[in-house]
Structures are given as C-alpha cells and as structure tokens.
Amino acid sequence: MQNQILINVAPGETRVALLEKDALAELLIERRSERSVVGNIIKGRVTRVLPGMQAAFVDIGLDKAAFLYAGDYLPDTPGESQEDSSRGRRRGRNVGRVVPRIDTLLREGQEIVVQVAKEPIGTKGARITSHLAIAGRHLVLTPAGSRVGVSRRIDSDKERRRLREIVHNARPPGLGFIIRTAGEGTRREELEADIRYLSSVWEQISSQRAKAPAPHVLYEEPSLPLRVVRDVANADTQRIVADSEALYQEIEGFVERFVADPKPEVEFYRDPEALFERYEIEPAIDSNLGRKVWLKSGGYLIIDQSEALTAIDVNTGRFVGKRDLEETVLKTNLEAVKEVVHQLRFRNIGGLIIIDLIDMETAENREKVYRALQEAIRADKAKTNILKISELGLVEMTRKRTRENLVQQLCEPCNYCDGRGYVLSRESVTFKVLRDIRKDLTRFCGRQIAISVHPRVAEMLLGPMRGSLEELQEELGRELEIRARPGMHQEHFEVVALDEGAPVELEVPWLVATTRPEAEAADDAGDADLEEEEEEPDPEDLVDETDEKLPASVPALASSHAAAEPIEVAAPPSAEAVDSTTQFRILPRSGEGEDG
What we know:
This protein is of the alpha+beta class and 596 residues long.
C-alpha cells in the first residue's frame, strides 16, 4: 500500500491529511489556540480528593482541573504485562487487584507528576495518569517500569526475541521500554540511538521536577506534523508533502534522523493552487462530515452522534440488487462495514458505537460481515473492542477516545435550534399562537391587537389557517393585524396592543410586591422570630428588595388606565412589546407560551 501525508500550514492552523490508496483516510487538525496536550508531562497540584468517586482533581494549568482515577495513580506491580503498542496503559490493568482508597494515596495541596492521557472533551476536563510514557520513533520509555515489552502487532517470535535482547542490553538500569510496531526490522544502531534520546529526555524531566513550581509543564509533545511523521510514517509511506518551507526543512531533518529505510520522499509544495484543493481534500472533508454518507452501490449510512453513544444506521437506499433479498442485504452490509470503519477513523469517533446493520437471515452471512468488520478495523491504530453481531443485526463496539472528534473540532451547536436538530413546525407555532391568544382573550378588552410572527407562520395564518383566525377575530370583536417579521425566530411570536382601552391587568410573576405596612409587619415578625429562636423565616414573610423602590399603592397585580401617569416597572430581559400609553409590557410571548 502506497500512502501519502499532506500537510497544510496556515496562520494559526495546521492540517494533516493521511491518504491511503489516494483516498482520504484521516484528517488531523491543530490550532494555535487549541494545541493538543495529550502526552505532555506536567507537575500539578491536587485540588480536590473525592473518596466517593475514588478520584481526585488536579490543577495542571488548564481551564478545568484534570481527572485522576485512583487506579491511574498506583505504581506498576511486578508481573504486569507491558506488551502494548499504545503510549498509555491498558484500561484493564487494575482487574484482579484491590485499589486503595484515594484519600490514602493523595491529599489536597500535594504536588505530583502526571501525564495527560485524554484531551479535555466537551464539558469534561483532561484525563491524567501517573504512569508516564515518553514516545520515540521505535520505542516508548516507561520510567516507572523495569521491563522490556514488545508490541503485539509484531507477530514473528524470532524478531520479538531479537528486539527484546537489543533493548535489554542497551537500556540504562531502572528504566523500562516498550518496542513499538515501527521498531520491527530496525537495526541495533537505531534502537540504541532511540534509547539515548529518550534517556536524555527523562534526565531533563527529572532535573526539573524538584525545583519547578506547580503547575508546570516538564515535557511537551512535538508539533502535530512531527508527531504524525513519528507515529505514522513507515515503509508504506511513499512521500510527505508540506506547503511550508520552514516545516519542510524541519520534517526533512526529522526523517533523515529518525525514520528507518526505506525513507519516504519529503517534498516542498510550491504550486500557486492550494495543496488541499490540488488533491481534492477540501470537497472530501465537506462530503464526509454530513449526517448521511452514500455508499457506491446506492446504499447509505446515517450517523448520529450524541453525548452517550454514536449510532450508525445502514440502509439499502437505491441499491435493489440482482438475484434475491438476502444477497442484496449481504452486499450492502459488507460495503457498509468498510465505510463505517473509514468514517470512525476520519471523524475520530470514540466511545460506545452501535451499528444497526440490515437484518440477515442466516448466521453464515452474519459471520461474513463480522469478519469483514474485523479485517477493516485492522487499519485503525486506535484500540477497539467489537462484539458479535446480534440476532437483531446490531454491532456493539468501543473505540478509544483521546481527543475531540472532528465534528466537535470543526463545528458548533446550531444557535437557531439550540443544538436539538429541529424546531417547531410552522403549523405547530400557528396553532400555539391561536391557543395563547384565545386563552388571554379577556385581557385585551376589545383593544386592537397586532401579532408579529415569522414570515412562514404569517403565511399559515393568512393562508390555510385563515378560517381559524377569522373565528378568533369574531370572539375578540376586533380585527387582528398579522405582521411578518423576517428576523424573528420561527418558534417565537409577539403580541402588541395598538390602541387605548380599558384597564389591563398583567401578572408580574418575577415581582413580589407588598404594601409598605405589610412589609413593615413582615420585618417586625421576622425580628421577633429571631429574638425567640434562630430559624429559617417562612417564605411568606420574605419581602423582595424591589419593595423599597415601589410606591406603597402598587399591588401584586399592576393596573393602569390610559389617562394615568406611566409607572416604570423593570421588565425581564426577554420582554420586548410595550404598550405606548401605559409603559407596561403587553403580553410579549415566546414559543414556550410563557406569560409576560
């Protein structure tokens, strides 16, 4: 397989596209304001210890405190397997042993050295661990360990023994190492150079940890392009293309020093046409971020991401097959699982994932699809766990999540629908307007009314719902003026009285007003209760602070005539409609139907 790494550098943003067989496989983005902190080693300070959660929160210099589970703070135990290609530790490391209480391990204010295992995602802070691991090109240094492990992706027993022996003889005493998949076939000299580099990094960290104030970064991972070259470039990588001359020179030196033969070609892109446009990366990004993803056969996937899980639904769409239904379903599912894996990698979807395949009649076909899914997932470097296909055609799987997915990086919740993905239909809003006006009919007392609504709702009121509007006008005894306001939210509407009329009583729920004598009596009663016994006052005895600003004659239900002097009453921020004669808010209403 001939792969390429394309690197686009712009002011404040760097994007790296991984191409496999000329198809976009993964997209990685790093922005100056959101640089990744995964892998950084930091001296932090414990801010809270929570025995009930067996966890602690640690200040590591980020906006939110990082989360440290008790099991992630335990030292390595003898006999624990370290043969893992990942930089972190396997989640099952604490199975079969008792984890001590967190309050016996840590105390508030204690300074500890930790490493970031997961980025802050959404409202959650970073996940950290004290099991430090510093990655090189061929090796991972584990300072707390003393063993030499080998990646499980290296299958040859002979090669595993050779690598283990080289590293064991060359490593400094007391330091552990894990041989990465990229170390397969590496010469002794290259492994020894990696050991010297990682050992020097650890010496620098050790010299800083005692004198550095907390929080303080002791070790920082290299920039995104260098991390990608270090972790991804291998014998299958044909070339690396960068459109920044400074970065090109940096990568060229890195490849020459650290990447084993055969080395990929490093190229500086000089053409005036944008790099990602030249290789059609931009349209591929846009097409792969949609909720619906089409398959070549005519079927499609529906991808719904939520806080709890990601659900992927497989549909035949326009694909009708040729022979029988079972064959059509099998072909669609086989094509779908390959595209599912591609979407998981491209979008960097992690956590719990449910794949709803099209139901298959035979267990043999379900097994074929399951094997195809396992084969496709081999190209994914993230740790995954897949369960067998159920009788209902569901696949439950997990994928390790270390940073925000691509949708979270590039998108934000819709400010029109508040991230729900839908709004009330214009028919629903129309009926709601009519119901709420009829409910408050007695308040208008024959006055002329104007209703401001979204243009699409106005079309309904003046079109299909014209009959219902005329019935309401007859009940009101006046004609209702419908105003289409283009900038108004579809779920919102506003009611305004246009003329003078009889007194209008308005409930003001945000204002609890009492007369001055009542306030004084409440104060006296409160003082007497405090003298007899210190206890919480009855809510009915409480007086709002606004009483001091209101005349003694203002009742709980504000009432005013057109000839009366205007009374200034502070309105809640959401109220907009104002009766020009009384200065009162006259039934400003929202889509939720709250009284003004």
